[in-house]
């Protein structure tokens, strides 16, 4: 893999991890529709995710330092569904990564969620409670299907519960930390590493970090302005194309 490829993959990871467009869906489409595209090694994938995880830590560092025990409990509760679904259905879900049509249909669902997110009414002052955390956690669990955006699903679930947009996005991003960390550790232990040079890892990591920070800011900005319809239109278009080509 070249430095340019590492840079491009890092940029794609950074942007699509947080924008509500499904990073896994874009990876499947790239693998199946772009000539000459090769799946990066497991270690490289883990390092890209480390870059986006660090982006969350940097962006929300003040929030992380001030988390209450109650909020940590809510994050733990919200992480349970993804852990259970990932453990029970990981092999089934892996099989879906070869289907462009599945991704296309899932992207249409993501599009619908993005459109609806703009329309739901938030309740001023409403905080995340245990039942809210479970609902958002189930949304995150279902989003292991390629094409279903994790951020789009969880923000949709949280705002549908009446949670303020800013708080919904914050809970969504923080909830992704244990989920993504656990999934990648499992992936690495299951499939092992690869032998790319350190420069490729560094380029991919930094690209994922920088563009991850950018995509967090963009997502929060579009959400607050009720402009998720832009991502809805994008997912609708890509989903229809994927179904047609699949």
TrEMBL record:
Could you tell me the superkingdom of the organism this chain comes from?
Bacteria
Asked whether the keyword rRNA processing is assigned, the reply is no
Gene that encodes the chain: uppP
* Cellular location(s): Cell membrane
What the record says about family reads:
Belongs to the UppP family.
Q: What is the organism field in this record? A: Candidatus Woesebacteria bacterium RIFCSPLOWO2_01_FULL_44_14
EC nos: 3.6.1.27
Q: What is this entry's stated membrane topology?
A: Multi-pass membrane protein
The reaction(s) catalysed by this protein are:
di-trans,octa-cis-undecaprenyl diphosphate + H2O = di-trans,octa-cis-undecaprenyl phosphate + phosphate + H(+)
Annotated GO biological processes are: cell wall organization; peptidoglycan biosynthetic process; regulation of cell shape; response to antibiotic
Function as written in the Swiss-Prot or TrEMBL entry: Catalyzes the dephosphorylation of undecaprenyl diphosphate (UPP). Confers resistance to bacitracin.
Q: Which UniProt keywords apply?
A: Antibiotic resistance, Cell membrane, Cell shape, Cell wall biogenesis/degradation, Hydrolase, Membrane, Peptidoglycan synthesis, Transmembrane, Transmembrane helix
Q: What is this protein called?
A: Undecaprenyl-diphosphatase
Q: What else does UniProt say about it?
A: Bacitracin is thought to be involved in the inhibition of peptidoglycan synthesis by sequestering undecaprenyl diphosphate, thereby reducing the pool of lipid carrier available.
Which residues are listed as membrane-spanning? 46-64, 71-90, 96-116, 168-186, 198-216, 228-245
Which Pfam families would you find in this protein's record?
BacA
* Coiled-coil annotated spans: none
Query: Is Transmembrane found in the keyword set?
Result: yes
Which Gene Ontology terms of cellular component type are present? plasma membrane
């Amino acid at each position: 893999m070249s430095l340019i490829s590492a840079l491009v993959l890092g940029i794609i990871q950074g942007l699509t991890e947080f924008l509500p467009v499904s990073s896994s869906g874009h990876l499947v489409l790239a693998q199946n529709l772009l000539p000459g595209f090769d799946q990066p090694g497991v270690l490289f994938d883990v390092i890209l995710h480390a870059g986006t995880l660090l982006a969350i830590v940097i962006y929300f560092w003040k929030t992380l330092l001030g988390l209450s025990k109650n909020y940590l409990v809510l994050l733990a509760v919200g992480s349970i569904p993804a852990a259970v679904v990932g453990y029970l259905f990981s092999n089934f879900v892996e099989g879906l990564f070869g289907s462009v049509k599945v991704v296309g249909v899932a992207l249409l669902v993501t599009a619908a969620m993005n459109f609806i997110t703009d329309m739901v009414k938030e309740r001023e002052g409403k905080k995340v409670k245990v039942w809210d955390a479970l609902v958002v956690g189930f949304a995150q669990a279902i989003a292991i299907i390629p094409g279903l955006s994790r951020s789009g699903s969880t923000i949709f679930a949280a705002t549908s519960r009446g949670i303020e947009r800013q708080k919904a996005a914050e809970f969504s991003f923080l909830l992704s930390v244990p989920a993504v960390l656990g999934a990648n550790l499992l992936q690495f232990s299951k499939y092992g590493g690869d032998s790319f040079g350190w420069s490729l890892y560094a380029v991919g990591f930094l690209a994922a970090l920088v563009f991850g920070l950018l995509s967090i800011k963009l997502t929060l900005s579009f959400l607050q302005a009720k402009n998720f319809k832009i991502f809805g239109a994008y997912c609708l278009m890509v989903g229809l194309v994927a179904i047609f080509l699949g």
